[in-house]
Design goal:
Layout lengths: L3 H5 L6 H13 L7 H10 L10 E6 L7 H20 L4 H5 L4 E6 L7 E2 L5 E2 L14 H17 L6 H10 L2 E2 L15
Parallel strand pairs: 1-2
Antiparallel strand pairs: 2-5, 3-4
Helix pairs in contact: 6-7
Length: 188
């Protein structure tokens, strides 16, 4: 439990309610995946994180349908493959391979929860970085422009052009230090 219970207990109607909720969750039966089925699903994954053409991924940091951990896995695989090819001097890729992947993140605002006069949360729609495929027209156009520039040069755009495009689009970041938690599926 740690300190988290003290941070969130007011949102859960106090410490007693939070502890009751945690006791209920702890007593609930857990589902266990079928190991054979989980191994079969892993064999169906064809993507290896190799990008032969300039590619931009956009992960929403609070997407409940396609969690950001999937885009994070792709980004990590792209970096692994880039570093492996760059360090292998005998590789044909070492002479030509460059990073063809740019991971962008659609971020949530610092505060977006709204409450009614009685204190109940009000359902929100269209909040940047939440939900699935919740991309604004400006964000779509920024990514399309970056891909068009990459296609015409044959190399993924980088640097100031990327930063300017995402600043103008709003709600997108390119943060080298951001890392979404990997899905459990990718952790073994």
């Amino acid at each position: 439990m740690g300190d988290g219970i003290f941070e969130y207990n007011s949102a859960l109607s106090g410490l007693d309610a939070a502890q009751t909720l945690l006791a209920y969750v702890a007593a609930a039966p857990r589902s266990t995946g079928n190991p054979a089925a989980m191994e079969k699903v892993k064999t169906l994954t064809a993507h290896k994180g190799v990008f032969n053409v300039p590619t931009i991924t956009l992960g929403a940091t609070a997407d409940n349908a396609t969690p950001a951990g999937h885009a994070q896995w792709l980004a990590e695989k792209a970096v692994e493959n880039y570093l492996a090819s760059a360090s292998n001097k005998n590789s044909k890729l070492a002479k030509t391979f460059r990073s063809n992947h740019l991971a962008l993140w659609q971020v949530t605002p610092d505060s977006y929860t709204k409450f009614s006069a009685t204190g109940s949360p009000i359902s929100q729609r269209g909040v940047n970085g939440t939900g699935h495929c919740n991309i604004t027209p400006k964000q779509h156009l920024a990514i399309a422009d970056l891909l068009a520039a990459s296609a015409s040069s044959g190399q993924l755009v980088s640097g100031q052009k990327v930063l300017t495009a995402i600043r103008k689009a709003g709600g997108i970041t390119y943060a080298r230090d951001f890392s979404a938690p990997l899905l459990k599926y990718y952790q073994n």
